[in-house]
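User: I'm putting together a teaching handout on how multi-component assemblies are represented. Below are the sequence lines for each component of a complex, exactly as they appear in our records. Could you produce the 3D structure of the whole assembly as structure tokens, so the students can see both representations side by side? Please keep the chain order the same as the input.
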Amino acid sequence: MNIIRYKTPELATWPRFDRLSSLRDILDSAFQGYTPGWVPALDVFEDEDKVCVQIEVPGMKKEDFDIALQDEVLTVSGERKADSEKREGESFRSERIFGSFSRSITLPSPVKDDEVTAAYQDGLLTVTRPRPCHPARPGPQPTKLS
Amino acid sequence: MSALATSETQPARTECRVDSHNRIEYVAPRVNLHQDAEGYILEAEMPGVGKDGIEVTIEEGKLTLVGHHRENSPRGRLVYRERRPTAYRRVFDLDPHIDAGKVSARIEQGLLHVHLPKAETAKPRKVTVS
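Assistant: Of course. Below is the structure of the complete assembly, with chains in the same order as your input.
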């Protein structure tokens, strides 16, 4: 079973990140069965014109990632392969996790796939997606009194 | 364990160090350690750390790895966090057979590789019977 990471409550400004939704995820996962692999940590940033997801995946190659966007759900998956070279001798500390991972995150509103850009540097995969331009909301209209 | 055992107790994932002015918190990176006849190969996961943020120190029989996150341009307001913004640190007791002068390190995509070759005198050697 995947480890459910601690969610900082004060940062849960999006309702889908609150603690209740993580409880829902646990309940959902019980019905979806066992998902193998590991769960890399991620951060989400946003500002006026973009949403940026940053995932910790050290020691991989660009080709190892698969980034997909379907409707509102961004899914990043990949496989970290153990290097089989230099495996003579003895290994007496194996804390790194290898194998496949997959993380999905719901972004605020749908965008086209080609609008997403990704970069891999220092073991961090950064997926950036521009925010859709919302039509300017009409401000409060003064009510005319007759 | 004598050879490259961690100085800190095993489950220490985070540690706090107090220097003269402030209290610094570190997180221990995940490490793979492999030994062969030539020496040791240590791999430490430090995502977010660039070449300039790495400090590898050998002092008094201890190997200290410290990694500071690269200063990035602000990406916007943080709305959700799982990653730790703290620096990485981990200390290992060195096998006395290691040739400290030949230790080399490189970092690739947040993965620090440290090569610790054994001194020539410590390598296994065959004696021919005459």
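A couple of points students might notice: Chain A is about 10% helix and 35% strand. The longest strand of chain A covers residues 73-80.
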